[in-house]
Design brief:
It comes from Rhinolophus ferrumequinum. The protein is mainly alpha-helical. The protein has one domain (about 40-175). It has six helices and two strands, in the order H-E-H-E-H-H-H-H. The chain has helices spanning about 5-10, 15-20, 40-70, 75-105, 110-135, 150-175, and strands spanning about 10-15, 25-30. The chain has a two-stranded antiparallel sheet with strand order 1-2. The radius of gyration is 20 Å and the shape is elongated. The chain starts with a helix and ends with a helix. The relative contact order is 0.11.
Length: about 180
């Protein structure tokens, strides 16, 4: 399967005059590799992208654990770098998920499937925001200010969001079986 990174690496140089004028090559967006793919391939790609998100969440959690173990003094620059790296991974996945959603909603005329993908994207945004808040609440700078009830509620929100994500993925897979 083609990943977002592979698609980015296959960008084609264009407009040599623009390159000469600015000193930097202009890149033309390559055609989207899933344009003519069967619906089942798009659904499979969504599942692969979810696996990439899960891996990014693991890297974020591990980066936070390393940060907490690093001090005092805490190695914030390293943690910030990890957060930046993971943010880029989340953004790349989100761009591709949105492209699949647009393909399903537009040319494929599959509003039900597109709705599942949109729900998935919204749930993942909620999950990421909640995990980020939990990490912030666990920051060493806030030690002694913990609100255990709020922390518990946020952890429960993450669990419920993950359950909802699993349900949407199941619905997507089930509903896609009846499309083609």
């Amino acid at each position: 399967m083609i990943t977002a990174e592979a698609a980015a690496e296959s960008a084609i140089h264009t407009a040599p005059e623009a390159e000469a004028a600015t000193g930097a090559p202009e890149l033309e967006e390559p055609p989207w590799p899933w344009k003519d793919a069967p619906i089942q391939a798009l659904v499979q790609r969504i599942h692969q992208l979810q696996a990439e998100r899960a891996q990014a969440f693991r890297r974020l959690e591990e980066g936070h654990r390393q940060y907490l173990r690093s001090g005092p003094p805490y190695d914030f620059p390293r943690y910030r770098s990890k957060v930046h790296e993971v943010t880029q991974a989340f953004a790349a996945v989100s761009r591709e998920v949105l492209a699949v959603e647009a393909e399903l909603a537009g040319p494929r005329a599959q509003p039900l499937l597109a709705g599942h993908v949109r729900s998935l994207q919204q749930l993942e945004q909620t999950r990421l925001a909640t995990v980020a808040l939990l990490q912030l609440m666990g920051a060493p700078e806030l030690t002694g200010q913990e609100n255990t009830l709020q922390t518990h509620q946020l952890k429960m929100k993450v669990i419920k969001t993950m359950e909802a994500i699993s349900e949407v993925l199941q619905d997507l897979r089930f509903d896609a079986e009846f499309v083609e």
